[in-house]
């Protein structure tokens, strides 16, 4: 990746068009369907290039993704909200189009990145939304810098505890949102798709994981069935791993996913 990125369109950045999985009927599902979407970058105080996605006009709305996520997972949401807001999605360091680095991989540093991102944009105030790990980043932001500059804050899908302790009861596990018993088992569940804590009963973990499936896991025809759901490769911003797929394939898969999760 050559930095800086300056308002590049997604097809230009990838060198080809891309069909997004999990199509929403009536909404854009190809990168070329959303020409206002641009990708840029800025350099942090510790000299790491962070990419961000933006579209629309109006009050600034900044999304901070969860662990391993990136702006591509907000494609449909940006397309809808850009009609009312100037929407930004920051690719956290080592995620998405942002630079890969061994330094600064701490929540406190991510919070500093958010502050420097707002300063780069020249925004005295903005709406913020943190999802999963992004919520932790925003709590750290408030701890470090206070609430000045935050017009509103939305927190989505943050579990109080990702993993649980051995002496917790079933109710304690459920109340905390913990889906596995150790950090090692959590990592193994993402890397190898191994089962998580069997005692946690009210979770749609398999559905959520389907959003994170990678292009290199696809089977023939671009689909791979797992647990009754077609697992379609969610966008991973690395053009070597992207595969062209006919839009009809995505429509068929969308119907299968809808049936599978009902």
TrEMBL record:
GO CC, alphabetical: membrane
Domain of life according to the entry: Bacteria
The entry's keywords: Hydrolase
EC primary class: hydrolase
InterPro entries, A to Z: AB_hydrolase_1 (IPR000073), AB_hydrolase_fold (IPR029058), AB_hydrolase_sf (IPR050266)
GO molecular function: hydrolase activity
EC number: 3.-.-.-
Domain AB hydrolase-1: from-to ranges: 60-158
Keyword DNA damage part of the UniProt annotation: no
Nuclease is among the record's keywords: no
UniProt-listed Pfam families: Abhydrolase_1
Region called Disordered, residue ranges: 243-262
Name of the protein this chain belongs to: AB hydrolase superfamily protein YdjP
Gene name linked to the record: ydjP
């Amino acid at each position: 990746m050559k930095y800086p990125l300056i308002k590049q369109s997604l097809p230009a950045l990838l060198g080809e068009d891309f069909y997004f999985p999990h199509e929403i009927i009536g909404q854009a599902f190809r990168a070329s369907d959303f020409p206002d979407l641009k990708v840029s970058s800025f350099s942090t105080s510790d000299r790491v290039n962070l990419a961000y996605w933006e579209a629309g006009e109006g009050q600034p709305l900044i999304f901070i993704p969860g662990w391993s996520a990136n702006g591509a997972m907000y494609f449909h949401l940006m397309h809808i909200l850009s009609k009312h807001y100037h929407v930004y999605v920051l690719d956290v360091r080592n995620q998405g189009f942002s630079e890969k680095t061994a330094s600064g991989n701490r929540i406190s540093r991510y919070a500093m990145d958010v502050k420097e991102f707002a300063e780069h944009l020249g925004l005295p105030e903005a709406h913020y939304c943190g999802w999963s790990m992004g919520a932790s980043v925003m709590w750290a932001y408030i701890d470090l810098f206070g609430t000045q500059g935050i017009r509103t804050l939305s927190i989505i899908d943050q579990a109080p505890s990702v993993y649980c302790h051995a002496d917790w009861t079933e109710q304690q596990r459920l109340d905390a949102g913990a889906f596995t018993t150790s950090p090692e088992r959590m990592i193994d569940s993402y890397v190898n798709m191994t089962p998580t804590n069997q005692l946690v009963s009210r979770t749609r973990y398999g559905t959520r994981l389907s959003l994170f499936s990678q292009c290199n896991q696809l089977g023939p025809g671009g689909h791979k069935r797992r647990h009754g759901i077609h697992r379609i490769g969610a966008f991973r911003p690395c053009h070597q791993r992207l595969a062209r797929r006919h839009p009809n394939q995505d429509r068929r898969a969308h119907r299968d996913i809808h049936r599978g999760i009902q």
